[in-house]
Design a protein that fits this description.
It is a single chain. The protein folds into two domains: about 45 residues, YefM-like fold (3-Layer(aba) Sandwich); about 55 residues, no CATH class. A three-stranded mixed β-sheet has the order 1-2-3. It contains four helices and three strands.
Length: about 110
């Protein structure tokens, strides 16, 4: 269901605190959100867990796409290396890390 069709509830922070059980039940039922205000100004938004999980899944997808695009851009710009060079670089970092730990007595 599009967000625009969902019920929107507006509550001050004190109203939310006093009636949070009712507001949470209403959010679950309607799939809506609650805009919390403080002194008449928007302060926070509360949404149901299902909506939150859906939004976070979309954020994860967008971050993955952005990472892939960065990799493609790097490759197109010639910022790449062979697997052998990559392995040598990683092994060098790991060797430094191990030596560093030995110096600290770990």
């Amino acid at each position: 269901m599009p967000v625009s069709n969902r019920k929107r509830v507006r509550a001050s922070d004190s109203e939310f605190e006093l009636g949070s059980g009712e507001l949470i039940a209403e959010m679950r039922k309607s799939g809506g959100k609650v805009l919390l205000t403080r002194k008449g100004r928007a302060a926070a938004v509360a949404i149901d867990v299902k909506s939150y999980r859906r939004i976070m899944a979309q954020v994860d997808q967008l971050e993955t796409i952005r990472g892939i695009q960065r990799g493609l851009d790097d490759f197109a710009a010639g910022r790449s290396m062979s697997l052998g060079k990559f392995r040598r670089r990683i092994e060098g970092c790991l060797a430094v890390s191990r030596a560093d730990r030995r110096k600290r007595g770990r």
